[in-house]
Amino acid sequence: AIVEEEDAPEDLKHRAPIVTVMGHVDHGKTSLLDYVREANVIAGESGGITQHIGAYGVTLEDGQKITFLDTPGHEAFTAMRARGAQVTDIAVIVIAADDDIMPQTKEAISHAQAAGVPIVFAINKIDRPTANPDKIKEGLAQMNLLVEDWGGKIQSHDISAKTGEGVKELLEKVLLEAELLELKANPDKLASGTVVEAFLDKGRGYVSTILVQAGTLQVGDYVLAGTCSGKVKAMQDERGRDIEKAGPATPISILGLDGAPQAGDKFSIFEDEREAKNIATKRSQLQREQSVRTQRH
Ligand code: GDP
């Protein structure tokens, strides 16, 4: 999480948890993310999420919100961490109940533990006749990871990402875990946060998905993100709707940057457009010099 020493406690408001889904290949990360994106566990919104912008927010029936990083696998997680970005509050680790605890499952567990991010296990594919969730939980216990129904403290839930069984309850457990973290941010200042992904769109120019972590981003703001800068011309949410403002824990795609920043780059807002541009230019110069130097060696 971003350190916000300058914020007075009364300025800090509750924010949604930011969740990454990790796990072994084929255990169901994409299916879970797709199910949550499309499902009617999400209240209050007609029409599903139409855009793949690298992150999306869902609202549960009771009004609580969760933000998902929509890049399954821990590559995104580690790439961001390598750039010093700590974006994830909670890791959902998907394990197929008809398989074993596999190498990438163990890797995901160590990544989450190294980052100090609490884990919620999603024991998946329980619709399959060969599913044996207890075998998975026993395996976890042998790794000193005791889940709740085995008398431990780690949340887990049996789900089927295919039928949707248990997914709502899984999300409720994620929110329970989030409550313990007391996630807060100050929405009443210039925005800062992290780049999730960025690409060049034929027609629209550079499109960057960013996650606002503190403050509120507005159309017209001057952004510095990695080696790129520019004025926010437009912002869209995961439903492709134009929006004017985005507060903490909101993923948003923005138009107007002069390049594609890298996943994990921090962004901040400047009062002065030229200042943002100058810093971006200096950073790209430094990067070029560094790459020339490494080529020589
Ligand atoms: P990923 O590699 O972890 O993203 O896994 P995918 O979501 O691509 O799933 C791998 C395969 O398992 C696909 O064929 C899915 O349709 C299937 N699958 C995922 N979740 C379930 C589930 O809960 N039940 C069943 N029966 N199949 C599932």
In words, what does this structure look like?
It is found in: Cytoplasm. This is Translation initiation factor IF-2. Belongs to the TRAFAC class translation factor GTPase superfamily. Classic translation factor GTPase family. IF-2 subfamily. It is a single chain. This protein is an alpha+beta fold. 27% of the residues lie in helices and 29% in strands. It has helices spanning 29-38, 74-82, 103-114, 133-142, 167-181, 273-296, and strands spanning 13-14, 18-23, 55-59, 65-69, 90-96, 119-124, 155-158, 184-185, 192-201, 205-214, 217-218, 222-225, 228-231, 234-236, 242-243, 245-246, 250-255, 266-270. The longest helix is centred in the C-terminal third of the chain and has 24 residues, at 273-296. The structure holds guanosine-5'-diphosphate. The site of guanosine-5'-diphosphate has 16 residues, from helix 1. Guanosine-5'-diphosphate binds at residues 23, 25-31, 72, 124-125, 127-128, 160-162.
Question: Could you outline the blueprint of secondary structure elements for this entry?
Answer:
Blueprint: E1 13-14, E2 18-23, H1 29-38, E3 55-59, E4 65-69, H2 74-82, E5 90-96, H3 103-114, E6 119-124, H4 133-142, E7 155-158, H5 167-181, E8 184-185, E9 192-201, E10 205-214, E11 217-218, E12 222-225, E13 228-231, E14 234-236, E15 242-243, E16 245-246, E17 250-255, E18 266-270, H6 273-296
Parallel strand pairs: 2-4, 2-5, 5-6, 6-7
Antiparallel strand pairs: 1-8, 3-4, 9-10, 9-18, 10-17, 11-16, 12-13, 12-18, 14-15, 14-17
The chain binds guanosine-5'-diphosphate.
The site of guanosine-5'-diphosphate has 16 residues, from helix 1.
